Amino acid sequence: MFYSFIRWVVRVLVLLINGNTHYENKQVLPDGPYVLVGPHRTWWDPIFFALAGSPCKFSFMAKEELFKNPILRWIMNHANAFPVNRANPGPSTIKVPVRTLKEGKLAVMIFPSGSRYSQQLKGGAVLIAKLAKVPIVPAVYQGPVKFSHIFLRKRITVRFGDPITVPSGRVTDELTAQVGEQMQQSFDAIDKAIDPTFRYVPDQKKYLAEKEAGKVK
């Protein structure tokens, strides 16, 4: 109930402050639960992914520091988020989303590149999809990377790619690399389908700060 209400409020706000959002290729979305993956380009692209994927509802990972504040913890819990220690991820990082997907009520949103400036795909999305026996759906956000530009009514596009089925067999390094390459190829193809001239340019100050902190290579 809370999730649906918040999504409605956010949808109205986005319409008022931007009104230039486009959600493309929704017909490829599975009827059942799935793992939604995408390159993390801004702190707000998860919001647009959630709006684009409606009426499906999503669960997502959030850094555990956010759950220390009681107000934020209440909001996160009611928005289907679950805490993750990014420095030392435990078994719950895999078990919680797998259980959520198997229950069949929610999809799970994962940014396999971790930091929004990292290009290294992680194996977590592959393992979760494999254990839950659900497809992986790639998605891409193209739009402002500066929050103030959203108010300039610049075009925002979220486009979905064809679902990826994780092959049978053990989740080996080779399998993870294979599916990771499929994800990256899909991201590239979706970017090209939206705008062939698009080139993602991250905020250099934030990029250098994360690089110095060891979050990106």
Written overview of the protein:
Helices cover 41% and strands 15% of the residues. The protein is α/β, with parallel strands linked by helices. The termini are far apart. The mean pLDDT is 87.
Protein topology:
Blueprint: H1 2-17, E1 21-24, E2 35-37, H2 45-52, E3 58-63, H3 70-78, E4 81-84, H4 92-103, E5 107-110, H5 124-132, E6 136-142, H6 147-150, E7 156-160, H7 173-194, H8 204-212
Parallel strand pairs: 1-7, 2-5, 2-6, 3-4, 3-5
Antiparallel strand pairs: 6-7
Helix pairs in contact: 4-5
GO molecular function, one term: acyltransferase activity
Keywords: Acyltransferase, Transferase
Protein name: Lysophospholipid acyltransferase family protein
Estimated helix fraction: 40-55%
Gap from first CA to last CA: 41 Å
Report Rg: 17 Å
**Biggest sheet layout:** 7 strands, mixed
Overall SS class: alpha/beta
Strand order of the largest sheet: 1-7-6-2-5-3-4
Compact description:
The chain has 217 residues and is α/β, with parallel strands linked by helices.
Features:
single chain; 217 residues; alpha/beta; 7-stranded mixed sheet; 8 helices; 7 strands; 41% helix
